[in-house]
Amino acid sequence: MKFQAIAGHSEAIPHIAILLLDTGASGIIVDPKVAEKGGIKRVVQTDFRGVGDKGNANGYVGFADSVRIGDLEFQGCYVDVIDKRSVNGEDGLIGTDIFAHYLVDIDFPNGKFKLSELPPRPGDSATQPASDCGAAAAPQFYDQYIAPEMKSYTPILHFGHDLLIPTRVNDSDPRLFLIDSGAFDDVISSTFASEVTKISDDSHTMVKGISGAVNKVYRADTVNLQFSHFLHERQQLVSFDISRMSNDAGTEIAGILGFAMLRLMEVKIDYRDGLVDFQFDPDRFH
After folding, report:
1. Which sign, positive or negative, has the C-alpha torsion 182, 183, 186, 191?
2. 170 and 242: one domain?
3. Cα(5)–Cα(92) distance, rounded to whole angstroms?
4. Residue 214 belongs to what domain range?
5. 85 and 180: one domain?
6. Domain count, the chain
7. In Å, how far are 19, 63, 66, 76, 103 from 41, measured between CA atoms?
8. Fewer CB near the terminus (10 Å): N or C of the chain?
């Protein structure tokens, strides 16, 4: 799903960029050309790490006075700028955590995206959601509140910007899988896969990410993913070492729920209370 984002500095002509929506990304990530045209000011040099075994990608953190997406405008935005060869997408990516003050509704089959106000907590009055890029990352602590209309939602865990959902594989104990629409397909950790099914080398499949190509790719024989109220049966699922993702998150990530499956669903995310809902219409795909 693509967005038109207008980024700019007060002294520059605003620039329109096409960004891919990504539940596994954080904030806004663009290539240097977009940053230059949008007048994004360099703040600090840094590097970025993701899937792949070829080392970190070069880049920097920049600052834009504002970023406009449709009728929604964010003020004072820090933007990650990564070498263009390392950005998967049109001009860059936009993480759903940017919209963490809203109920995020991504209707993949119909190509629709909707933001709505979260239900107010008991005793709280409804407030206007913040429109500041940095606000999504600011620590705010609450007791979880599950509104009556969200009783069917599934609890998830936040580790940084990662959205992790308990998932059983072939009747295993629950393990944590990353909800990542930016991943090409479901993936299972090669270490975990060897515990629940047979795995074999796959020298023909290439997996690439921000950190280049993955050196060693496997195939997991039979993988039945049980998450939320769904059972997803897979054969020959892609598998590789994702221990670097686990180390970065600070907890073990056993796999990824990726775009090939998520594109069939409508996904609703409540960042505030750590809830997610998946809706699937089987009649649509007959």
Report:
1. negative
2. yes
3. 10
4. 155-285
5. no
6. 2
7. 19, 5, 12, 11, 31
8. C
Q: What is the pTM of this model?
A: 0.88
Lowest-confidence pick of 73-82, 107-116, 179-188 = 73-82
Span 107-122, pLDDT tens digits: 999 999 999 999 998 8
Structure tokens at 35: 């940053």
* Alpha carbon separation from 185 to 59, 160, 257 (Å, rounded): 27, 22, 7
Count of Cβ atoms closer than 10 Å to residue 112 Cβ: 11
Q: Phi and psi at residue 90, in whole multiples of 5°?
A: -75, -85
Q: Nearest CA to 120 among 155, 141, 148, 154?
A: 148
CA atoms within 13 A on the CB side of 61: 10
| Domain of residue 27, CATH code | 2.40.70.10
Residue for token pair 């970023």: 67
Q: Say whether 236 sits in a helix, a strand or coil.
A: strand
Spell out the SS3 assignment of 141-161: CCCCCCCHHHCCCEECEEECC
- 61 and 160 together in one domain: no
CA distance linking residue 286 with residue 283, whole number of Å? 6
Same domain for 273 and 177?
A: yes
